[in-house]
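I had to read the description of the data format several times before I understood it. In essence, backbone conformation is discretised, so a fold becomes a row of integers matching the chain in length. I therefore recommend that a typical entry be quoted early in the introduction. For illustration, here is how one protein appears when written out as sequence plus structure tokens.

***
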Amino acid sequence: MTSSPASAVLLRARALRRQFPAAGWAGLRGEKRGGIRAFDLEVRAGECVILLGSNGSGKTTALRCLAGLERPDAGSVEVLGGSALEPAIRREIGYVPETSPLAPERTGRAFLEELAFLGGLARRERKQRCSELLERFGMSAYADRSARAYSKGMLRRVVLAQAFLRPRRVLLFDEPTSGLDAPGMLVWQALLDEARARGAAIVLCSHWGSEALELGERALVLENGAVRTQARTEELFADPQVRELAVRGLGDLDVEALRAEIARRGGELLSVRPRRRGLREILREIVER
């Protein structure tokens, strides 16, 4: 496969549906619940798209379908022009689940080196790359300890590192920052920036509006398995009815006749922008429509 231009669509889902048998008698009657229905998505080279939604909205199911780990009941998924089930394409996908796949008895180094081997890296290259990632994530001193001695944040660092063993062209993350501390977050974001700079397509699931605003150009909000709205993140979280003011040189002030008061007191109005709504507010609005 050749490299793709910046505008190329690397990941595409069309009319995707994946649901699961209902519990009890309803399941025996063939009824299905949960999952996703009518899910559409396109992600271009260098783009990061955020999937937002409450628990059970379908985010994880959508991500697993994109990764080729769930077979959709209907619709199609196209990754790099082919199927995620093709071995050559599968090697180009980095997938990080919400729960840790690292067995308690395994060490962080052994976990990464095994995945690097399965990913086709030569012995010297995989040892070098694993050591480099362990160093960047601050895990070198713990790399040869069993995972049962790791905190949740340490586990998360090692699991996130495996997505960057190779320069993959598609990266998928399910709640990537769960349990991650600020230093680990900075390392992960730096690696994410490097991946975007080389043209990777990125999709991540999140519960946090601040994460969406910081990382993604575009966001999709899912509810009951369907995409209820999608927009650029700045537009999604903007409240057109409210403006926020950033003022230099003033302390507390009376907001009456604000512009005139700022000028009269010698302050400088730096910006006026829409108030950013919280994700909870957006979800509530969608449910109440």
The longest helix spans residues 182-197. The radius of gyration is 22 Å. The domain at 9-236 is CATH 3.40.50.300 (Rossmann fold).
